[in-house]
Design brief:
Layout lengths: L2 H25 L9 H5 L5 H12 L7 H15 L12
Length: about 90
């Protein structure tokens, strides 16, 4: 048996194993989760999310809106996992 024939035989075995594994994976039935994972982590009402939607509707005007700046700051802090920074003292 020469090298060329051995390479062909190896390729045929590889393809046969790949086709068999694919057929098994396609026919395997998975148990559906009792409830979707996204529904478990979603609170009923998230004021931060509502603020984000409001700022999204404002468009370019949101850059000058104090509430939107606050919402974006809270969103950034939540994303980065930090506690919200205390408000800067006024009058300085």
């Amino acid at each position: 048996m020469d090298g060329k024939m051995l390479a062909r035989l190896g390729a045929i075995v590889f393809v046969a194993v790949a086709v068999t594994a694919t057929a098994i994976e396609i026919t395997r039935k998975e148990d559906a989760p009792a409830s979707s994972p996204a529904a478990l982590h979603q609170p009923d009402r998230d004021p931060l999310r509502e603020g984000q939607r409001r700022c999204q509707r404002l468009g370019q005007k949101a850059a000058d809106d104090a509430d939107c700046l606050r919402v974006w700051s809270e969103t950034r802090d939540r994303f980065l996992g930090r506690a919200s920074a205390p408000a800067a003292p006024e009058g300085r």
